[in-house]
Amino acid sequence: MKILVIGKGGREHALVWKLAQSPRVTHVFCAPGNAGTALDGVNVPIEANDVDALVKFAKKEGIDFTVVGPEDPLAAGMVDYFQEFGLRAFGPTRAAAQIEASKVFAKKLMRDADVPTAEFRVFDHPDPARAYVQTREYPVVVKADGLAAGKGVIVCSNTEEALAAIERVMVKEEFGRAAGRQIIVEKRLEGEELSVLALVSGRTIVPLAPSQDHKRAFDGDTGPNTGGMGAYSPTPLATPELLNDIEAHALVPTVHAMKRRRTPFRGVLYAGVIVTNQGPRILEYNCRFGDPETQPVLMRLKTDLCDLLLAA
Ligand code: GLY
Questions:
Q1: SS3 content of the chain, % helix, strand, coil (to 5)
Q2: pTM for the whole thing?
Q3: Is the CB of 227 under 6 A from ligand 1?
Q4: ∠ CA 37-267-155 to the nearest 5 degrees?
Q5: 295 within ligand 1 shell (Cβ under 6 A)
Q6: What is the pLDDT of residues 217-240, one digit of tens each?
Q7: Rounded CA gap, 139 and 161, in Å?
Q8: Is-contact 214 230, C-beta < 8 A?
Q9: Are the CB atoms for 252 and 243 separated by under 8 Å?
Q10: pLDDT tens digit sequence for 65-102
Q11: How far is 87 from 74, CA to CA, in rounded Å?
């Protein structure tokens, strides 16, 4: 089989590395790829959001299966587009990718499905949001609804900071007009964060090994928060009881709710979980493999990844 991986991160290198080990895979291409993917596959100079060029390449090269790494092309409908051309692609449709692309969608889904998450309110105008943050206990988190390259989440320790965050997101539109049209104000969850990635086929859920990423930029847990400087698995935080709890009270009701809404989820459902003193709470969902969590998780995976992704 010929495989195309879309993206250019450590995540995509891990995917290329693992997929290349499958006995049924003969070629792995990566668009646009990086220095690592060039070692285990063949880089193709097409950007991850250039849907037309990617479809053209997949058809010309006879690609049997495409794996989409990052959230932006998924949210833009890359998988739907490939399917329109009769090409098999792994990842959620545009409608299902809303679970990451719209924080309001995800929080409402969690509320409807009784998934444990932080208490929150949604606002589509700055005035009621300003009034609300005057009444809160701190810290709170102000979140832009849409994708903002991981930057649209602002932790606020007092009312002044929350008012400034509302200004930045909704009035100055620092994270883009669409991302700032709606905001969420939610209680800040206290605890360590765990990444639980599960392969989902619409109704079947296969959790992969849990992991944790190093969030702060510098050694010794110092410096600015990042999307993850590195990751490790196994982690002592993830006991079997905790994982059963997350599967039963978060993954299962979420996947069923997506199906009921006629936006069935196929792909990797990534639960960002905060392990609080009261138990696990879902901080957010992502609609893709984690970066960098994919690196240790796929190192531990014994099953053929190509078989798993095709089955999903
Ligand atoms: N490591 C965080 C993420 O992939 O979103």
A1: 35, 25, 40
A2: 0.95
A3: yes
A4: 85
A5: no
A6: 899 889 877 888 999 999 999 999
A7: 10
A8: yes
A9: no
A10: 999 999 999 999 999 999 999 999 999 999 999 999 99
A11: 15
